[in-house]
Amino acid sequence: ATALDIAAIRRDFPILHQSVNGKPLVYLDNAASSQRPKSVIEAVSRYYEHDHANVHRGVHTLSQRATDAYEGARETIRRFINARDTKEIVFTRGTTEAVNLVAQSFARPGFQPGDEILISALEHHANIVPWQLLREQVGAVLKVIPISEQGEVDFVEFEKLIGPRTRLLALAHVSNALGTIVPVEKFIKVAKQHGVPVLLDGAQAIPHTPVDVQALGCDFYCFSSHKMLGPTGMGVLYGRKELLEAMPPWQGGGDMILSVSFEKTTFNQLPWKFEAGTPHIAGAIGLAAAIDYLETIGMERIAAYEHELLEYATDRLSRVPGLRIVGTAANKAAVVSFTLEGIHPHDIGTILDTEGVAIRTGHHCAMPVMEFFNIPATARASMSFYNTREEIDRLAAALEHTRKVLG
Ligand code: PMP
């Protein structure tokens, strides 16, 4: 049993209370994007109704309010992930932009031909393609730690692959395609012994589990607001101050400079050095409101409740004839990726939608994972703390219906 009042929580999410194709909506596509509570929607509209102006520039009152709210959001995020300093919190468009920033500003200036970047076979394309672009730019080598049949990153192979040419370890904290929670602590420990910096793709971890960047000991941590109840087009790069200080800016423009002349430009301090142009002010404010909401419930309680949901869903879905769960790691976030014998995942998704059930089907931007399991795609149900066992039952019933229609 759980201490969460799910009925009360659900009342905070207006979007959940609607019918889709004549059936009450069951939203199980949270790994792609979560929904927003009223408090986030209201924080964003309150900002636009009362406080909006450009930040960092004006002496007038509205600009001051907008700046305070924007920089206040940075402090909320710092506290949420336990970074030492707000200088270490860089706003980006999302996880994707955060990884690209590290590739272009940390790796590109210093990496030599033959230098190695180590990733895993579990990665989202956002933690693969930026390194491939870098490979073209500097002649770096991309090495991939294999995964097991359970969908776990192979630690023994990792220890063999890390070596004197390794310049960066870039790992998913939680896999979006399978839900695997990667035991990043032990990978980081070995990386540190080799003096290798570590980037974590936290897009799927941060909405579901407490994250403490100092306890983890990572050098970079990337995440997206829209997967953790916040606005889209907003994300965060956490970077250790010493590393960020040494990195050149990656985009030029207003706000990231101290002075500009045609001969010489001096750059602003951290974190603004990395925030060229007018930022997504409302996005930062909405993300801070999302964090307030998550903290009111408590990340520990969210993780515990979602784990119960995962166990329930795993058991219930396993009893659907012909259903095979892909990714059976011992430690998983509340994601169930599966196939249904003889039915293409895309058709599963289409029939489920007629039953009001929203899941994701496809390769989940992790095509190498699909290739490893020798399947084109999976159907993926991904849960949040506002989901219920009744909704899992609705999913299972809709899958049984799908088998009758298409099987
Ligand atoms: N990494 C992982 C593990 C993800 O799940 C996602 C989003 N699907 C991303 C990176 C990319 O996030 P965004 O599209 O918000 O930049």
From TrEMBL:
Pfam families (alphabetical): Aminotran_5
Coiled coil: none
Primary enzyme class: transferase
Keyword Transferase among record annotations: yes
Listed EC numbers: 2.8.1.7
Domain Aminotransferase class V, residue spans: 26-395
NCBIfam families documented for this protein: sufS
Name under which the protein is recorded: Cysteine desulfurase
